[in-house]
Design brief:
It is a single chain. The chain is mainly beta and about 350 residues long. Helices cover about 0% and strands about 45% of the residues. The strands form eight sheets. A four-stranded antiparallel beta sheet has the order 1-31-30-29, with no helix packed on it. A four-stranded antiparallel beta sheet has the order 2-3-4-5, with no helix packed on it.
């Protein structure tokens, strides 16, 4: 099936200034989740109508299909398949022509998701398998046919994307807990309380430490994420009541935290919590910035203004403004660095490609 419209803006990336618009591709509904990279340099995204639309490196349409529910996350390209976890199912499509390959029905999530209604991205695992977190359901599936290797029901729903940690999976849930789950069996090895309420962004992990933000408007650092022992609190900082829904991002020795119910981007010294710099965007950030070398690339919008314009902002390692590009609508999905392009979706149903340098 074809998307409703395609709009291309002719530009040569090699001659474009940083932040220049290279191309925009339109669909018929808001793009809320992240854009996924394709193996040959293109990208694919989904919208709230369940429409999947992809473009190759030159901006040419590659594959088009429809999921059976809104897409609130990034699709996952595995080989010649595109895997999609919508609000109603997990589906696989052929990348070459969008042909449906298989479908696994899941308990439906409500239609008409709110502006903060995200779902975890599917996670590629070893041996052509993938992990899907869908509300309280957690499944490890075969990419070839969708058959579950295991399926478990969690105590609480998961909105943050799971992460690999050796042979384990780490998941943060809506009750502020971090779960360590055996990737081979789905058994929960340990669970710890880390925040006072919902964790929506994936925690940052490095060298046995954990950094987490939450809707309790706090960012916290912990020592020790291995084994079953509870992590030890290291430092904590308040964001004055402003929700933190985007995952914290490690940039060298800095931890960058973007507010989702406020306008501030704050950087801390990761080991001590010392505040290093901050910048007021005047907009909200809902998914973690992208990293290009030591540059931060931030997509933002105004949550309570459906007709607001969005922004892409490039910041240097000390928070200095490098460039900024206005977008025609709110940008709430995670931006994707693809070669020397930045790709981001917006609430007016478009995906935009910007020049990085």
């Amino acid at each position: 099936m074809l998307v409703s419209a395609w709009a291309c803006f002719a530009a040569t990336a090699a001659l474009a200034e940083p932040g220049a618009l290279l191309r925009s591709v339109s669909s018929g509904a808001p793009v809320r989740g992240a854009v996924a990279a394709l193996p040959a340099g293109g990208w694919c995204a989904g919208n709230l109508n369940g429409e999947l639309f992809c473009a190759d490196a030159a901006g040419k349409r590659r594959a088009l299909a429809y999921a059976d529910g809104p897409v609130l996350n990034a699709p996952l390209a595995m080989g010649e398949r595109l895997l999609v976890a919508s609000t109603r199912s997990v589906q696989a499509f052929a990348l070459a022509d969008g042909k449906p390959l298989w479908r696994l029905a899941l308990p439906p999530r409500p239609d008409g998701p709110l502006w903060d209604g995200y779902m975890p991205d599917p996670l590629a695992l070893d041996g052509e398998e993938l992990l899907v977190a869908h509300g309280r359901e957690l499944l490890r599936l075969r990419a070839a046919d969708g058959r579950p290797r295991w399926r478990v029901t969690l105590e609480a729903a998961v909105m943050a994307s799971p992460q690999r940690d050796g042979g384990d999976l780490l998941l943060a849930d809506v009750q502020g807990r971090l779960l360590r789950i055996d990737a081979a069996s789905g058994a929960t090895r340990a669970r710890w309380n880390l925040a006072q309420g919902l964790i929506q962004g994936a925690p940052a992990l490095r060298d046995g430490r954990i950094w987490v933000g939450g809707r309790d408007a706090r960012v916290r650092a912990f020592d020790g994420n291995g084994g079953a022992a509870a992590p030890t609190p290291r430092w904590e900082a308040s964001h004055g009541g402003n929700w933190i829904m985007a995952g914290p991002l490690l940039v060298g020795e800095q931890l960058v935290v973007a507010e989702s119910d406020g306008f501030l981007i704050q950087a801390y010294r990761a080991d001590s919590g010392e505040k290093l710099w901050h910048m007021g965007l005047g907009q909200n950030v809902y998914q973690a910035p992208a990293l290009d070398g030591d540059r931060l690339l931030v997509a933002s919008g105004r949550a309570y203004q459906a007709d607001a314009q969005g922004l892409v902002t490039a910041l240097g390692p000390r928070g200095e403004l490098l460039w900024q590009r206005g977008l025609p609508a709110n940008a709430f999905g995670r931006p994707l660095v693809l070669g020397r392009r930045l790709v981001v979706g917006t609430e007016n149903g478009q995906v935009h490609e910007l020049a990085l340098d």
